[in-house]
Amino acid sequence: MEGVRRWLQALERGLDRLYPPCCVLCGAPGEPPALDLCAGCRQDLPWLSRPCAGCGVPLPAGAVANDLCGDCLQARPCFDRVLAPLHYRFPVDRLITGFKFHRQLATGRVLGALLAEVADSRPEPLPELLLPVPLHPQRLRARGYNQATELARQLTSALPGVRIWHGLRRVRATSTQSGLDRAQRPGNVLGAFAVNGTLPARHVAVVDDVMTTGCTLDEIARVLKAAGVETVEAWATARTPPPPGSR
């Protein structure tokens, strides 16, 4: 397996020489680790510096490490940690929209590389498995690909020893969460996910493109813990502040 990884890395280096990477935002030459992003645009991204220790929501100025938002002071979510390093605002919203709805897979590679860099620099141990948030088969056929799976592939290529597991299934079609109000969101995803078979790990991360209210990831974490997983992390490239009192 390590030989295959080295061969793929050598192939990527050869392709980079033939087709030099360029920044997806400004067109300047790209630089590691994201490659298709230049150093200036990377620095200007809206990095999330004060996340809630429970759900990752951006906290106001003056917050310190391990502070909790109002929602998490009342009830912590089922997942144990959140990794969502960017605010969902320009130009991150543009990048995610292009990746998710317009097949801009190069943009997905940039987002995955940034997420992998932050994950690998944390003091916490990496999860054993990555579980992409699954699409319902009808939506997957319509879109043609699952953006969460593409992100997970990029992450596993950058994080040695971490694998993808595809045993998480969406067993019920759901409405888009953004079109629902606060009271409707938890019920919309309740019972929508199931685990297929026995999970071969006790520490996993669920991967999605953007975390909005967190209801979907919370429901998945509940299902995974009922299946015997000890630690569930929620990974997304960006975090959107939820409406007050919602998750």
Automatic annotation (TrEMBL):
Pfam families the record matches: DZR_2, Pribosyltran
Annotated Phosphoribosyltransferase domain residues: 144-237
Domain spans labelled Double zinc ribbon: 15-73
Assigned protein family: Belongs to the ComF/GntX family.
Protein name listed in UniProt: ComF family protein
Organism for this UniProt entry: Alkalispirillum mobile
Phylogenetic classification of the source organism: Bacteria, Pseudomonadati, Pseudomonadota, Gammaproteobacteria, Chromatiales
